Amino acid sequence: MDDFFSKPTRPPSFRTEKASESLMHLAADYIALEAARGSLITPTRIDMSPDRKNATIFVSVFPDSASVPAMSFLTRHRDPFREYLKKHGRFSILPFIKFELDYGEKNRQRLDELSNELSNEHSHETAAPENDSLDSPED
């Protein structure tokens, strides 16, 4: 339910969408170049402020056990990543960058697992014959 005092949210402008898309590609390229090969860090989405001064890059990490070291790596590399953006990006305003784990992606993956488990249980139940006496005629 919307609060009376809250402002309605607007869809992002074309420029903000383009900046987010560019930032997503540059983040993926930078992480591929600089991150250790022991884990897979994938940018999943960007949340950019309407004025394009702040951006949160949400990432997923595989395996899950590498989440803490991956987030430590990304936090340490925030300034070098901004330098990378200056060299390789074309931003009218270079945003302040923040990295966060994408729990929404983790939740979606968990829901997929549960859905697959339920469908597997359902397929096993329907595959088993319920009653063999249906084949024999009643006397």
Could you please describe the fold and organization of this structure?
This protein is α+β, with helices and mostly antiparallel strands. It has helices at 14-34, 67-76, 78-88, 103-127, and strands at 40-48, 54-62, 96-101. A hairpin with a 5-residue loop joins strand 1 (40-48) and strand 2 (54-62).
The CATH topology turns out to be GMP Synthetase, Chain A, domain 3
- CATH-level-4 superfamily name: K homology (KH) domain
| First-to-last CA distance | 64 Å
Q: How many DSSP E strands?
A: 3
Q: Which regions are unreliable across 5 or more consecutive residues at pLDDT < 50?
A: none
| Oligomeric grouping of the chains | single chain
What Rg, in angstroms, do the CA atoms define?
A: 24 Å
Structural class: alpha+beta
Question: How many separate domains?
Answer: 1
Total helical segments: 4
CATH class: Alpha Beta
Widest sheet: strand ordering = 1-2-3
CATH architecture: 2-Layer Sandwich
User: Percent range for helical residues?
Assistant: 40-55%
Q: Report the sheet-strand fraction.
A: 15-25%
Instruction: Please provide the ordered H/E string of secondary-structure elements.
Output: HEEHHEH
The backbone outline, from C-alpha atoms, is globular
- Average pLDDT for all residues: 84
**What kind of sheet is the major sheet?**
3 strands, mixed
